[in-house]
Amino acid sequence: MRFLLVEDNAQLARALVDRLALDGHVLDHAEDLATANSFIEVASYDLILLDIMLPDGDGRNFLKAHRSRTDRTPVIVLTARSQITDRVGLLDLGADDYIVKPFDFSELEARCRAVLRRRGGAADNMRHFAGVDFDSLAGTISIAGRVEPLRNRELRLLEVFFAAPGQIFSKPHLMDRLFSFTEDVSENAIEVYVGRLRKKLEGSAARIETVRGLGYRLTGKT
């Protein structure tokens, strides 16, 4: 999934980018609100991690503007403020969750998973489609008792397809979901990952179809 991190502490930002990349997530890092606003104008995100005290303003103003656009992208606030009134205020402004600095990375990862599950209407990490059991936390698919491990980008690509079976996704859209602004890759990379997933889905009724001139979609009998 693609995250936007709005954080001016370079050391913390680098650590977060590296840690969440291990989970297969793509992160665009904005060190101020101006950069964050420029990013959201040209890219869509699955989750925003938002600091409050930023060089060019208050993250709460960004949050209010974000919600005024009826943008449903979930937001987790990274805050140094531990007072109950501060945290309640953030939730009332539209934050989906918050975490108080300093925090443990494993807790942040768990909060990200929980927020993304709520957004997708799921109670756990398991999804089922056309004879495939997909465990996004374990990073595996199971087909008739056979377990196939998924590499990070295979996992994130399959999340996109499983979230909307039957929907056609263009290569540019899939590129946007899998790669950050700083990564120099071609659309051929999508063909490689789709090819890998097709092999791993063999033995199930699930298929990733090529829709000529449009992109790819996940189909299968449920």
Give a description of the structure.
There is one protein chain. The chain has eight helices and 13 strands. Helix 1 links the parallel strand 1 and strand 2. About 40% of the residues lie in helices and about 25% in strands. It has helices at about 10-20, 35-40, 60-70, 85-95, 105-120, 150-165, 170-180, 190-200, and strands at about 1-5, 25-30, 45-50, 55, 55-60, 75-80, 95-100, 125-130, 130-135, 140-145, 145-150, 205-210, 215-220. The chain has two domains: about 1-120, Response regulator (Rossmann fold); about 125-220, Winged helix-like DNA-binding domain superfamily/Winged helix DNA-binding domain (Arc Repressor Mutant, subunit A). Helix 6 (about 150-165) packs across helix 8 (about 190-200). The strands form four sheets. The protein has a five-stranded parallel beta sheet, sandwiched between helices. Strands 8-9-10-11 form a four-stranded antiparallel beta sheet, with no helix packed on it. Strands 4-5 form a two-stranded antiparallel sheet. The longest helix is centred in the middle third of the chain and has 16 residues, at about 105-120. It is of the alpha/beta class and about 220 residues long.
- Contiguous runs where pLDDT drops below 50 for at least 5 residues: none
Which oligomeric state applies?
single chain
Q: What fraction strand?
A: 15-25%
CATH homologous superfamily grouping of the largest domain? Response regulator
Q: Widest sheet: strand order? A: 2-1-3-6-7
Number of strands: 13
The top-level CATH class of the largest domain is Alpha Beta
Second rung of CATH, namely the architecture of the largest domain: 3-Layer(aba) Sandwich
Globular, elongated, flat, extended or rod-shaped: what is the shape?
Answer: globular
Query: Which class of secondary structure composition applies to the elements?
Result: alpha/beta
